[in-house]
Write a structure and sequence with these properties.
This protein has 21 helices and 12 strands. Strand 11 and strand 12 form a beta hairpin.
């Protein structure tokens, strides 16, 4: 906080980077967005110098935004379940307890609670029982024989084995007693193993919690929370027929199905499950339905017909990446997407950036980009071109609202102003740190946008994806334009960006001739090991060779392709920026789902007898859906501003 003492003489003004006139051109008559330095900003002033005052803590439920439907968010619901079903046990333990988790449940806990919140609830220590050291052995844990232990584990052989090891020596147990909570159903074999183990005499309680997903945002969850787990994409789409590969695919399918089933246990509603007709999506949907049926038989899930307050049951629509291989390849220019695309963000939200300190030295700081930051919450879905203007205006408004504290920080305040400024200084310092962070981030994003030549790359991506130029002319020379762009040595284009361009070309142009592919690989400088990424598009039903059609899986009919050939033109946003015209097909699919227009041939029901009742489901206005869903169904597909791809 010393950055705000009286020695600072410079005023706090936003010095936005001057945008090139062509940057983020709007499609029609809208004005080009340019943000120049503030007129009253002293030369060389920068808020990055004051970035060392800001420190974020990991998000908890009270920091997250309310649910768009007006009810509790998914994070609120999950927290409440763990508080009542797991942490509530601590009320009977006046001395507190140790909480033990594994590789699956650790992300669940860390996404819902701060360490300080767990300590306030009576947890003295959180231990990861399956974590291994560099030598491959399990890390040693401190024995606390006087304290009870709360085990929140996934029902796996490894986790149960680690639990049993804690009590293998009856004369020297690791903990006084064990209260067992499992994230999903425990198999009969594991129950039998536990009953026959030396840990059984120490077990005081046993419960299946059915909560096996982690939260990335208040209403954004992940079904594969285990850190370091192999990519589900590679596991599910690989064509190996050996037993280990089949076993890995089956495990991944059931892991995702289990996570999805526990999601609806937390929501307290049984869904209607539908899926695309691709083999991967259908397998996951079938596994999810089986898990839901098992939960229903166990009484852990309300029946579809028992929806509260007459609300329609939720719809779970399972898709796989073959539905839309294009959107993740396109550059997206909303704030959050650019941060994750262009900056080194670790563990989903950790970012370390450098700034100049008070003495001119270069310093670095790690922050968390999550919902604990109100500015991140406000700006994360805004297009970067709009953000550069709005951030400037909002920051100046903030300074006007805090003149006393700003004057004190700059050393230009009289005694009365100093007194008022001192009273407000702590909150002002915290807020200034947030402004400093986001001004630094936006400046870095704009710098990289220019340095990496992303405007030219994005314009070509959009032309290929939409089948036309911004002025509506057909995209007739994508190959020549791609050659020209890849041959431009003046741009510091990364190999990944070159690879993405080639993949966009292959997807949108329905393949590429082998000799042309070799030429472009050499022109882009793509190494042989990276060229495999393009060849693997074959597994997503993308045609690799121009003039040939990809084979269709024999077992089921394929739905309509999500990405139309360039000649038929993909959906285009009528208002927006030239670099953000493409509309991901998931948007129109969601609109059709909300209006009950999905074909049962392309997206069959896992329980066909529910098709008739689903057809009579009330419209979204009566369903209490989040605001984004209501807006998406109400406006035409081309009316939304913002992103042009980058779907997860």
């Amino acid at each position: 906080l010393t950055a705000f003492d009286g020695r600072l003489a410079s005023a706090f003004f936003l010095q936005a980077r001057a945008m090139p006139p062509s940057l983020f051109r709007r499609k029609k008559k809208a004005e080009a967005v340019e943000a120049g330095p503030a007129a009253d900003a002293p030369a060389g002033s920068s808020l990055a110098a004051y970035a060392d005052v800001y420190s974020l803590e990991r998000v908890s439920a009270r920091d997250g935004p309310p649910s768009g439907s007006g009810g509790p968010s998914l994070r609120d619901r999950a927290r409440q379940r763990l508080v009542s079903e797991v942490l509530g046990t601590l009320r009977a333990m006046p001395c507190g307890a140790v909480l033990l988790v594994d590789g699956v449940t650790m992300p669940v806990i860390s996404s819902l609670f701060r360490v300080s919140e767990l300590m306030e609830a009576g947890v003295h220590l959180v231990e990861h029982i399956t974590m291994r050291g560099p030598d491959g052995n399990y890390l040693r844990r401190q024995q606390l024989t006087s304290l009870p232990a709360l085990y929140f584990l996934t029902p796996s052989v490894e986790s149960l084995g680690r639990l049993i090891d804690d009590f293998r020596n009856p004369k020297a147990p690791a903990y006084a007693s064990a209260h067992l909570f499992f994230s999903s159903r425990v198999s009969d074999a594991l129950v039998a193993k536990l009953k026959a183990s030396p840990a059984m005499p120490r077990v005081r309680s046993f419960k299946e919690v059915h909560l096996e997903f982690s939260l990335r945002e208040a209403d954004l969850f992940a079904v594969s929370p285990s850190p370091g787990a192999p990519s589900a994409l590679a596991t599910l789409f690989r064509i190996d027929t050996d037993k280990p590969a089949k076993r890995a695919r089956l495990h991944e399918v059931h892991k995702i199905g289990t996570s999805l089933a526990t999601l609806f246990t937390t929501l307290g509603a049984a869904p209607i499950v539908r899926a695309a007709t691709s083999a991967v999506a259908a397998a996951i949907a079938c596994a999810t339905q089986e898990k839901l049926d098992a939960l229903d038989r166990a009484g852990a899930l309300p029946a579809v017909e028992e929806a509260a307050s007459g609300a329609p049951p939720p719809l779970l629509l399972v898709l796989d990446r073959a539905f839309d291989p294009l959107s993740p390849l396109l550059h997206e220019f909303t704030y959050q997407a650019m941060v994750h695309d262009l900056l080194p963000v670790a563990e989903g939200d950790r970012y370390r950036y450098t700034y100049v300190g008070n003495s001119g030295q270069s310093l670095s700081k790690e922050v968390l980009l999550n919902e604990a930051d109100p500015l991140w919450l406000r700006y994360r879905h805004m297009h970067i071109a709009d953000l550069t203007v709005e951030l400037d205006a909002d920051y100046k408004a903030f300074l006007r609202d805090n003149e006393a504290s700003a004057g004190l920080a700059s050393g230009n305040a009289d005694l009365s102003e100093m007194a008022a400024g001192l009273r407000a200084m702590p909150k002002f310092q915290e807020a200034m740190g947030r402004w400093s962070l986001h001004i630094s981030l936006v400046s870095e994003l704009v710098s990289r946008y220019e340095a990496f030549g992303l405007e030219a790359a994005a314009l070509l991506e959009q032309a290929m994806a939409c089948g036309s130029s911004p002025d509506g002319k057909p995209c007739t020379s994508p190959l020549a334009d791609l050659r020209s762009l890849l041959a431009d040595d003046a741009t510091a284009r990364s190999p990944i960006d070159a690879l993405r361009l080639l993949m966009v070309y292959v997807v949108t142009q329905e393949g590429i001739k082998p000799e042309v592919r070799r030429e472009l690989f050499e022109l882009a400088g793509i190494q042989p090991e990276d060229q495999v990424a393009i060849l693997n598009l074959f597994h997503l039903n993308v045609n690799l060779t121009h003039g040939l059609k990809p084979p269709k899986p024999p077992q089921r009919k394929q739905p309509e392709p999500a990405v139309e050939p360039a000649a038929s033109a993909a959906p285009v946003r009528e208002s927006g920026y030239d670099v953000s015209r493409f509309t991901p097909p998931l948007r129109s699919l969601a609109q059709r789902a909300l209006s009950g227009e999905l074909s049962s041939d392309d997206f069959p029901y896992m329980r066909p007898h529910l098709a008739a009742s689903a057809a009579a489901t009330p419209t979204h206005e009566a369903a209490g859906l989040p605001s984004w869903a209501t807006d998406a169904a109400a406006e035409p597909a081309g009316a939304a501003g913002g992103g042009g791809g980058g779907a997860p």
